[in-house]
Structures are given as structure tokens and as C-alpha cells.
């Protein structure tokens, strides 16, 4: 099989799993690979405004079952259940931007730098990220990149997954806070995703034809 064929196979192989086999576990090696793919994901300005909570607390899982209607079939049998958090208030002079600049990208943080000015201009004028909600949604959008990368990596390793937006954000955040799992001043819930092994056939893809979604502009 050539690489092109292999990629298309992985894309067809990944599907939103509705029934997991609760007895089948993901190996540590596979799980670490999926998490490493998440970590290596790209983000706007390299800010990686995300955190991944692997939920292993059974009481918390029970509470989530009631609040996350879209996650119930995952919670019933998936080996891994992840909540992806997005950073709040990701402004150019925020602690997170400072941390990424200094500790990750290894250049000292200067509030008067060209980088800070660029990020300020981009947020204010280009994308109009001018309030808490728009800033959170911008960070939340970034989290869908590792989300997709993790699911594709899983499919490549023959592991099933399901992305999950079927939940009430406020309720889930309150629940996570109850378990001291999140500092809501800093983080909000973006999206969830489950991984495991299916107990059903892979659903064939239903998609729009290429000519409906793809246009070459000359
Ligand atoms: C962002 C996002 C949120 C989703 N939320 C849920 C969900 O809460 N529960 C669920 O069972 N499926 C959920 N899905 C799965 C979609 O329904 C599914 O991906 C879509 O119908 C296409 O099918 P396929 O993934 O099997 O190809 C979600 C998918 C995405 C991308």
C-alpha cells in the first residue's frame, strides 16, 4: 500500500465510536504516543493554549455521565476519557504568553517587543478578540487541532475514538472544580474525547462530494 492509500485508509478507519468494548485496554506505549502527538500539535503563535485531563476518577465519571449527554456511550466503555481545557484570557501580556516565551521558546519576555505588539494588533484588529468570550473561543479553536491529531493517530494505531461536544459547559466546569481538577480563573472546558476499542462495525463515511466543498480560485 502506498502512503496516499494508507492515509485515506486511516481517514476512513477513524469514526465516531458509539459502542466500546469495556474489557479492551490501550497499551501504555500507544497511549503515550497519542499524547505525544497532542503535545506536538501546532497552535497560533505557538501558544499551545491547552491542557488535557485524563479522567480516571469513577465518582467524577458518574457525575459527568449526567452532565455530558454526548459522552454517555463513551463513558460506558471507553478505556480513556479526556477533557481538553482551553486557556482563558490569552492576552499578549498574560502569564501564559510569558511562560511560553520564556520557558518554552527560550527568549526573554519583553512587553515592548515586536512579538507582543504583533499579537496585540492581531487580536484587536485582525481577529477582533476583544473580550473574554472571543479570547476563550480563540484558544478553544486551537484545542481542536490536537483533538483531530489524537484521533487520527489513534486510528493509525487501530484504536477507536469519539469527539464530544454534547455537554453543558458550565455544569461540567462546576463539576471539575468540585474535584479540584481545574482552576476556572485560568481554564475553561473546550471539548472532550474518548479512546478505546470498538464493539461494533466501523461506520462507513457519509460526506459531501469533493466538488461541493473544494474550489480552486484562479
Ligand atoms: C466537535 C465534535 C463534537 C462531537 N460531539 C459528539 C458527541 O457529543 N457525541 C457523539 O456521540 N458524537 C459526537 N461527534 C461525532 C460526530 O457526530 C461524527 O464525527 C460525525 O457524525 C461524522 O461521523 P464519523 O466521525 O463517524 O465519520 C462529534 C464530532 C465532532 C467533530
What does this structure look like?
This protein is α+β, with helices and mostly antiparallel strands. It has one domain: NADH Oxidase. Helix content is 45%, strand content 13%. It is built from nine helices and four strands; from the N terminus they run ααβααβαααβαβα. It has helices at 3-13, 28-39, 58-67, 72-75, 95-104, 114-126, 132-156, 169-178, 210-213; strands spanning 50-54, 80-87, 160-164, 187-196. The protein has a four-stranded antiparallel β-sheet, sandwiched between helices. Helix 2 packs across helix 7 (132-156). The structure holds flavin mononucleotide (FMN).
Short account of what is shown:
Keywords: Flavoprotein, FMN, NAD, NADP, Oxidoreductase. The protein has 218 residues and is α+β, with helices and mostly antiparallel strands.
Number of helices: 9
- Strand line-up in the sheet with most strands: 1-2-4-3
Distance between the termini: 34 Å
Q: Considering DSSP H and I runs of 4 or more, what fraction of the residues is helical? A: 40-55%
* Rg, Å, rounded: 19 Å
Kindly estimate the percentage of residues that lie in beta strands according to DSSP: 5-15%
Identify the CATH homologous superfamily: NADH Oxidase
Question: Oligomeric status of the shown chains?
Answer: single chain
CATH class: Alpha Beta
Give structural attributes.
single chain; 218 residues; NADH Oxidase; 4-stranded antiparallel sheet; 45% helix; binds flavin mononucleotide; NADP; FMN
Question: What is the element layout, followed by pairings?
Answer:
Layout: H1 3-13, H2 28-39, E1 50-54, H3 58-67, H4 72-75, E2 80-87, H5 95-104, H6 114-126, H7 132-156, E3 160-164, H8 169-178, E4 187-196, H9 210-213
Antiparallel strand pairs: 1-2, 2-4, 3-4
The structure holds flavin mononucleotide.
Flavin mononucleotide binds at residues 15-16, 70, 162-166, 191, 203, 205.
Amino acid at each position: 500500500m502506498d502512503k496516499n492509500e494508507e492515509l485515506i485508509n486511516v481517514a476512513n478507519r477513524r469514526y465516531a465510536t458509539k459502542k466500546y468494548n469495556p474489557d479492551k485496554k490501550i497499551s501504555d506505549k500507544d497511549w503515550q504516543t497519542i499524547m505525544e502527538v497532542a503535545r506536538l500539535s501546532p497552535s497560533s503563535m505557538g501558544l499551545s493554549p491547552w491542557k488535557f485531563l485524563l479522567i480516571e476518577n469513577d465518582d467524577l465519571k458518574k457525575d459527568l455521565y449526567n452532565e455530558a449527554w454526548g459522552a454517555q456511550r463513551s463513558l460506558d466503555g471507553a478505556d480513556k476519557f479526556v477533557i481538553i481545557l482551553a486557556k482563558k484570557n490569552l492576552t499578549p501580556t498574560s502569564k501564559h504568553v510569558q511562560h511560553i516565551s520564556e520557558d518554552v521558546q527560550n527568549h526573554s519576555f519583553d512587553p515592548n517587543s515586536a512579538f507582543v505588539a504583533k499579537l496585540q494588533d492581531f487580536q484587536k484588529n485582525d481577529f477582533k478578540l476583544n473580550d473574554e468570550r472571543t479570547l476563550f473561543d480563540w484558544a478553544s479553536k486551537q484545542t481542536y487541532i490536537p483533538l483531530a491529531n489524537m484521533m487520527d493517530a489513534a486510528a493509525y494505531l487501530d484504536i477507536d475514538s469519539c469527539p464530544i461536544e454534547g455537554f453543558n459547559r458550565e455544569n461540567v466546569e462546576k463539576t471539575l472544580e468540585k474535584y479540584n481538577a481545574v482552576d476556572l480563573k485560568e481554564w475553561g472546558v473546550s471539548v472532550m474525547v474518548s479512546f478505546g476499542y470498538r464493539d461494533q462495525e466501523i461506520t462507513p463515511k457519509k460526506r459531501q462530494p469533493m466538488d461541493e466543498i473544494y474550489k480552486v480560485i484562479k
